Amino acid sequence: MYAQPAAKDRSCLKAFWIALATAAAIFIPIMIWDKGYFFFYGDFNVQQIPFYKLAHEAVRSGSLFWNWYTDLGANFIGSYSFYLIGSPFFWLTLPFPNEFVPHLMAPLLILKHACAAASGCLYLKRFVKNSESAVIGALLYAFSGYAVYNIFFNHFHEAIIFFPLLLAGLEELVSNDRRGVFALAVAVNAFVNYWFFIGEVVFVLLYFAVRSTCPGWRMSLKKFLWTGFEAVLGMLLAMCLFLPSVLAILGNPRTGAGELLNGWNLWLYWHNQLYPAIVSSAFFPPDLPSRPNLFPDRGAKWASLSAWLPFFSMTGVIAYLKSKRDWLCRILLVSFLFALVPVLNSAFILFNNSYYARWYYMPLLLMSAVTARAFEDRSVDLRFGFNVTVLYTALVTAILGLTPTIQSDETVKFSLPKYPERFAATAAIALLGLVGLYLVLRRYRADFVRRSRMLVRALCLVIVVYSVTFIGMGKCHSDDTNFIRDTALDGRYQLDLPDDGFARADIYDGMDNLGMYWHLPNIQAFHSIIPVSTMDFYPTVGVKRDVSSKPEVKFYELRPLLSVRWLFVAEDEEQQDLMPGWELYDTQLGYNIYENENFLPMGFTYDHYITRSELEALNEDDRAAVLLRALVLEEDAAEANADLLTHMEEDDYKYLSKSDFFDDCEDRRDTAGYSFEIDNRGFTSRIELTRENLVFFSVPYDKGWSATVNGQPAEVVKASIGFMAVRAPAGDNTIRFTYTTPGLFPGLAVSAAGLVLLAAYLLAWRRFGGQPEPPEPSGWDPEPGLGWAGWDDPQPEDIPDVSDDLDGPSLSDLWDLPAPYDPPDEEGPATAQEDLHEL
Q1: What confidence tens digit (pLDDT) does each residue in 366-394 have?
Q2: 826: phi then psi, degrees, rounded to nearest 5
Q3: Do the beta carbons of residue 459 and residue 140 sit within 8 Å?
Q4: Which end of the chain is less crowded, N or C, counting CB atoms within 10 A of the terminal residue's CB?
Q5: pLDDT digits (tens, 9 = 90+) for 483-502
């Protein structure tokens, strides 16, 4: 008679549903408060929402190549692959109408947290004995301080979700000889977000190096080579998006040599508060991204600095590190070292000199693992971990809350945080969570099942409380939600401007990306990834360009050059006469709309040129005016087109007045084309010329552009620092510019080849490689202190007898808990492939 088959493991599904319900408890009340939307503050409101709307409309309309509504125009795939193109959650929005997309932001966040719990559980359950422990670890990972902090950057959650698959795939390949899983995991992570994948590669190399020292892996040269092969194969599969994404940022000033870490900054952080901030981020709920509070002068805004595990804090991690000497301890200690040494920390962002902790979700997964293990292994000294965690949390709370500071008015204030009331809430959540942890363990010390259930319930409660508190703090700094809903979102469908040709807009001192909300080509943009030519153009003419384009009104000459026709100024703005040559057109949406009397349609010509070196010899504030008088060419382009344009002497452009500005605008307008039409592949211009000339377009120069003039191929000339021009003969001309994303089609070809290679590899392995090794028991590892070693079923004499303890267990007895026992299924645990199929 055969034994009854063991029940199928459902821990991943359980983690998914618990996380889904917990996230719903966080976001649904806020959606009700926001009348069907979810608004946060900062980047979430001005990037995540409009980016989703813009990309949604672009994909549905087939405009996958060039986007006219991102800054001065941008490579759509290159600009949005970092934010959402590779995300399956974005693609879930496509069946919905565009105006409904903002309503989906909270439901997608709910789903993301649930998926993070499921993927985390898929990895974690192989290192714990009991499925309940895996669920606890998964919830810790999915709702860690890092995850809740990055609601602000909601596209970071994709990395949190898919990273555990990378480690699970590696474990399946090396431990169980499961072929193809690791290659697919590499492909998914590289496809979803190329920038996070770079950091993941660094961490996986560390993980592989440390894990290979574990006897349980039985690492060999053969395994090493197969692992490398699958890693390369995974990269090939992802090249369809990875290649065009990387090509789009090559040459970006933010990735240049001048941005690399160097000198003393390699070894020491430049802000003395950053060290305690890094350590304390593991003991306290996260600060707001743009308003650090516990250590307000740490110099690390928007850095994603949070490593807090809700409810448990560092109790399990410290206890495990004190009690064990296994590879998990080693990888966590290496991670802590990397966090504290600038050059090591920056390895995850290609050694950029900006401080970011955006890789913390990776060690957080392992911190969740050791926390889950610590609470089911009676050899772990939980009392030590709890005491250290409470002591550190209380000590920092006392220091920050009671340190006197003398204010400017000579009064004494007893608080170091900038927002004392927020600090009080943060510290209370951290400390009361630890009190709750103690009470649960004390009450259910000998009943593992009930203890696990109560830990999950208490954990979910703390998650909801701290997440809602965090979001509420952020909403205090939000733009008016009525404005976002009624003016930004609905304004697009209310705004009434003439549709008689392409024109850009300018919004003075408005909410970031308001023009994107209104679907207007505009020169005010908050976007990190735009064409390198635009990043080059703005600083050359004196306009700061880091993460946003905001040319000041003193550069009024730029508006005609960039074909800006409309200027929006809030009705309550005192200063209305901002630039010369603007006339009031209408008042809509609470804005006075001005029309540019010096508007220049796209496509016009010059009679003269100067070289770029000559332009750069001028004062920055004077350069914008010159761009309306002479075409600026690189040295080689100036030589090649000297037959069309005459060189302008310095005396003719060095000292230009306001009257010169009006004259130059008139001259350029007299030569402008009579038609300019954009479409999903580029633009078509029609212009009549009295002589052969270079026709200039203020469209960012990019290697993806190709041009034809009257059907004949023409060379695209880089002009006026960051734009394009093309030769056209005398007479009536039809000029066509077509954009093809650099690297897209070669990337597709490589991915197709990778898919064929993967299929051949799996078929060959199935036929000639033999049967895979039987999967080892969940958490199996012969290394002492890890896995089943020393985790035998507790005997009756191992269980403390508390029946005669009328006063209940003491604090000392509390930590001496019997180890739970959850025997493995007779058929072995579910594999990663089975779990993925189940999900």
Answers
A1: 999 999 999 988 899 999 999 999 999 99
A2: -65, -30
A3: yes
A4: N
A5: 999 999 999 999 999 999 99
